Every structure is written in structure tokens, then in C-alpha cells.
Amino acid sequence: MTGGLRDGDAPEEFLHSPFIRKQGNIYKPNNRDMETDSLNEKALEDVHTKEIDLVNRDPKRINDDVVKVDFEDVIAEPAGTYSFDGVWKASFTTFTVTKYWCYRLLTALVGIPLALVWGVFFAILSFIHIWAVVPCIKSYLIEIHCVGRVYSICVHTFLDPLYEAMGRCLGNIRIRLSKEVV
Fold first, then answer.
1. Is-contact 109 85, C-beta < 8 A?
2. What is the CA radius of gyration of the chain?
3. Which residues fall within 8 angstroms of residue 93, CB to CB, at 6 or more apart?
4. Distance CA 11, CA 17 (A)
5. In terms of C-beta distances under 8 Å and separation of at least 24 residues, what long-range contacts does 169-178 make, across chains too?
6. 123: closest CA among 48, 12, 11, 44?
7. Coil, helix or strand for 25?
8. What are the φ/ψ torsions at residue 25 (nearest 5 degrees)?
9. CA–CA separation, 34 vs 62, rounded Å?
């Protein structure tokens, strides 16, 4: 089959041809089925390469109640114990600028390594869940189903007749209450 057909030879029939599929040649796809498959693959790739929002960096609001700390939340002067206005303004500016630049510096130094660590952690967690936890749970459910059937058979075989007999024996007991006047 490597050199093609000779004159007078009938083509060999295979159940699955190694080179030609229903959609076309696997090396040179040229029909719509395979083109739509490649479009679907591009759509799947976009999940990992999508644009991020640089304006709203917490769209699910997971840090709303945790890290919104402003100057007024930390430092407050009660009535009657005010510092100089210039000191108050300088304290506000110092606090705000220090918090802003320290956060930026820490994220520049530690943000990417921590993103790598958390990416690896959640990848391992996903891997363990997909390849270990779910199969163990499914296996347990299959096995417990078999055990449940055996348990059910044992209960129906041994305990049902016992409780039915006890019910018939004790079912004829009648209690009468009467008051006697003495």
C-alpha cells in the first residue's frame, strides 16, 4: 500500500484508513468540520490568554471587607485633642504614600514568586481532586452499594422474620385501665 495502486489492482479496503478520516486528510484539513474544530480549539485557548481588567482588579469583590484600610480607619483624634493641622495633613500624606509604595514594592518583589507558588498549589490541588479524590469517592460509592445490597439481604432474611414473629406474639397483648373506687 506504500506505492499506490498498479494497473488492474483493486483498492484494498480498511475499516479505518490510517491517513484519511471522514473530515479529510489529517495533515491538510480542508473541510468545514475540521475548521469548526480548530475554531473551538481557539475558543478554548482564549480562556487562558484572555485580557485582564487593569481598572477593576477585584471583580468578584473577595477583598472588600479585608484590606480596605484608610488613614481614618487607623488614626483618629477625638474632639479636644487635635494636633497641628500641618502635622495632621503630613501624617495623612505619609501614611497614604507609605502604604501605597510599600504595597507596590512588596508586590514587585514577592508577587510573582507567590503567584507561581499559588499557581502550583492550585494545580496540585486540582490534580489531586480530579485524579484521586473523585475516583476514590466513586469507588467507595460503588463498593458501598454492593455492601448495602448484602446488608439488605441479611436484614430481610434474618431480622424481618424475627420482628414479624415478635409482632404477632406481642400484638395480641391488650391492656385495660380501670379505676377502682375503694
1. no
2. 38
3. none
4. 12
5. none
6. 48
7. strand
8. -70, 130
9. 41
Mean pLDDT split into 10-residue runs, the chain, 182 residues: 53 50 51 54 58 82 79 87 92 94 95 95 97 95 92 94 93 86 80
pTM above threshold 0.90: no
Q: Measured between alpha carbons, how far is 129 from 137 in angstroms, rounded to an integer? A: 10
Residue with the three cell numbers 475548521: 35
Cell numbers standing for residue 52: 485582564
**Contact criterion met (CB below 8 Å) for 19 and 25:** yes
- Name the one residue in this structure whose C-alpha cell is 484521586: 132
C-alpha cell at 1: 500500500
3-state class of 146 per DSSP?
A: helix
The two counts, helices (H) then strands (E), for the chain are: 6, 2
Name the amino acid, one letter, at 24.
G
Task: Report residue 96 CA to chain centroid gap.
Answer: 37
Coil, strand, or helix at residue 145? helix
